[in-house]
Automatic annotation (TrEMBL):
The chain crosses the membrane at residues 496-516. Pfam families: ABC1 (PF03109). GO terms for molecular function: ATP binding; kinase activity. This is 2-octaprenylphenol hydroxylase. InterPro entries: ABC1_dom (IPR004147), Kinase-like_dom_sf (IPR011009), UbiB (IPR010232), UbiB_bact (IPR045308), UbiB_kinase (IPR050154). It comes from the Bacteria. Residues 89-341 form the ABC1 atypical kinase-like domain.
Length: 520
């Protein structure tokens, strides 16, 4: 009942902000034009369409705000005026009252902000869909940022997710491709990550893990700066981290004025993405411009700064190997290898003809090679791949939904920084180097080093285990004797069954003969 109430509210809000005008005006059909006139009642909306869409998404809550954040990075798919408005969702969502933020902090940490911190800024510096951030100063003088969860978030998200589950059930039942698309599994994955984002302790642990992967002072730490976590000031609704100084990555003109090499910055962003995915198997999965800053300080100029760690993704060794081989096959235009990988992984039925799948993949991907990023529409590629997947009954993999979303974010960031960036050629050398390190001698050495601790425990036991094995009586003759007896018993049983069958058959034939001829 709550799901349908929520659906009614969505419809009312959509009509309040005249989103029907936004949809119908883009359909070139006489019926759509007539319907649009009827709904307008002769009046046109006063606010611009982008502003109406942004306000509607804000009114509908955090799930829809997240959707708008993803759309804002896809300027190749939506008009610039809508993209500019949706970009405001990244860090300019309407804040909740500071008194409520102080109450959340006091309830979580057991003291008011003015007792916990030497200084606490009442007005938030940023407000997002799930939480807002206040700057503060610890009593030892260190500058921090305090993230506070919005009150009442769980109830709103549960309503939206309940509606999404109902819609997923309808999709699975009514659409031809419903079961193949696995809508319930996809919603379940989204459910998991949204609830993870509501637990700020989990976000703090994600931040800590990413900081270890890109530890300061290391080669990886020189390209990505991750804040330090202050665990004494963290709870499920409060997350306190090191304050970071930089410019939003979307402010390209200011970055250029600060002396940042924009072309190099774009290439570094691609390298960071592939490093997280393939080297670490742990990646920041919410890489919209509001969460990515760039340092403008002289000592760290041009270094990426990661913020907001509520949504992260992780990949198994199988996923990493499979994806890396697919990427390399795409880069090398080895479409037969792509087809074979899909069949071997079980993503397509075993009886799929390899050469047919190869031809379909070639038809989708070949037109997009040797082009700068500005001329590649990943949205069109995904659309054509979807059409192809329907034909070959490709099974959607829910565990890779976050990776697909993050790849879209990376492409959107690349367009903002350097429209001429060739995503394929930037990533290819990195993947080739990663595969060489993994499959070559270096990879073998690293695997040996990881297993060394286990071997150190087992190796001293080898002489004793070997002595026990060699000192045991040889029972192979007994086993052979038992097998021989079993075979003889089976043969006797077969003979007995054959004789019994012959007797039954003889009796049946005799009975039939007597019935027909015995009384003549």
């Amino acid at each position: 009942m709550m799901s349908w109430t929520r659906l009614l509210r969505i419809i009312l809000i959509a009509y309040r902000y005249r989103l029907d005008d936004l949809v119908l005006s883009g359909i070139s059909h006489p019926f759509a034009a007539v319907l649009l006139k009827l709904l307008r009642f002769g009046k046109r909306p006063k606010m611009p369409r982008g502003m109406r869409l942004r306000l509607a998404l804000q009114s509908l809550g955090p799930v829809f705000v997240k959707f708008g954040q993803v759309l804002s990075t896809r300027r190749d798919l939506i008009p610039p005026d809508i993209a500019d408005e949706l970009a405001l969702l990244q860090d300019q969502v309407e804040p909740f009252p500071s008194d409520q933020a102080a109450a959340v902090i006091e309830l979580a940490l057991g003291a008011s902000p003015h007792q916990l911190f030497a200084h606490f800024e009442k007005d938030p510096i940023a407000s997002a869909s799930v939480a807002q951030v206040h700057f503060a100063t610890l009593h030892d003088g260190r500058q921090v940022a305090v993230k506070v969860l919005r009150p009442g978030m769980r109830e709103v998200i549960e309503q939206d997710l309940s509606l999404m589950r109902a819609l997923a059930n309808l999709v699975e039942r009514l659409l031809v491709d419903g079961k193949r698309l696995k809508p319930r599994e996809v919603v379940g994955e989204f459910d998991k990550h949204l609830h993870d984002e509501l637990d700020l302790l989990r976000e703090a642990s994600n931040c800590s893990q990413l900081r270890r992967n890109f530890a300061p002072g290391t080669e990886k730490g020189d390209i990505l700066w991750v804040p330090e976590v202050f665990w004494d000031y963290c709870a499920t609704t409060v997350f306190t981290m090191e304050r970071m100084y930089g410019l939003p990555i979307s402010q390209v003109d200011r970055l250029r004025e600060a002396g940042v090499d924009i072309a190099k910055l774009a290439q570094t962003g691609v390298e960071i993405f592939f490093t997280q995915v393939f080297s670490d198997g742990f990646f920041h999965a919410d890489m919209h411009p509001g969460n990515i800053f760039v340092s403008n300080r002289p000592e760290t100029l041009g270094r990426y700064i990661a913020l907001d760690f509520g949504i992260v993704g992780s990949l198994s060794e199988f996923d990493k190997n499979y994806l890396a081989q697919n990427f390399l096959a795409f880069f090398q235009r080895d479409y037969r290898r792509v087809a074979r990988l899909h069949i071997e992984s079980g993503w397509v039925p075993e009886n799929t003809r390899e050469e047919e799948l190869e031809a379909a993949v070639r038809a989708v991907c070949e037109p997009y090679f040797d082009r700068p990023l500005a001329e590649i529409s990943l949205g069109q590629v995904l659309l054509r791949l979807f059409q192809m997947s329907r034909r070959f009954h490709v099974q959607i993999q829910p565990q890779l939904v976050l990776l697909q979303k993050t790849l879209l974010n990376v492409e959107g960031l690349g367009r903002e920084l350097d429209p001429q960036l060739d995503l394929w050629m930037t990533a290819k050398p990195y993947l080739e180097r990663w595969m060489h390190e993994r499959m070559g001698f270096k990879g073998f050495r690293n695997k040996m080093a990881k297993e060394a601790t286990q071997w150190a425990q087992l190796t001293p036991e080898f002489p004793r285990l070997l002595h026990q094995r060699l000192s045991q009586r040889d029972v192979s003759a007994d086993i052979l004797h038992e097998l021989r007896l079993n075979r003889q018993a089976r043969e006797r049983g077969n003979k007995l069954l054959l004789a019994l069958g012959f007797l039954i058959l003889t009796g049946f034939v005799s009975a039939v003969w007597w019935y027909f001829y015995g009384q003549i």
